[in-house]
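Let us work through a complete example step by step.
Step 1: write down the sequence.
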Amino acid sequence: MEAATETHGRPGIFQSAGQFPAAEEVDLPLSPDARHYYRNGPSLLQRQLPFWMAEVVQRLLLLLIPLVGILYPLATGLPKLYQWQMRRRIYRLYGELKWIERELQSAPSGAQRDGLMARLAALDSRVTQMRLPNAFAQMSYLLKQHVRMLREGLERGAPDRTA
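Step 2: predict the structure and record it as tokens.
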């Protein structure tokens, strides 16, 4: 439309200035794009940039807007999911520690107590060998401390209620 206006917009032998191209339906219906052009003129991008660059930018915007709409929630949600996963690993071991402590308090007999002490030792080795990022080191050290406090309390003979 812009090229037709530049080429044929000037007065000529058969038309006066601004007579062609016009928003008049002669034989074919006027397309919605042409109607929009006649009503509003060229877009802001086409006024500021060359046609080819305006089209590239417009198509990139059409592609980037939905892409940003998908990537932004992923970029904000994935770190939270990662933190949840790391905490879940630690809290699962805390649940096992609490279960062992309850069982040890209710099972004072020798064989059961020895089996639970062996499970506590296995839990202690799993906690020691667990690899976590430095951001979760405090939680890891706290879990190790609670396991060792329970173990030391049981070795002294009085169960400790820290876990």
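Step 3: interpret the result. The helical segments are 2-8, 32-40, 44-48, 51-106, 110-129, 137-156.
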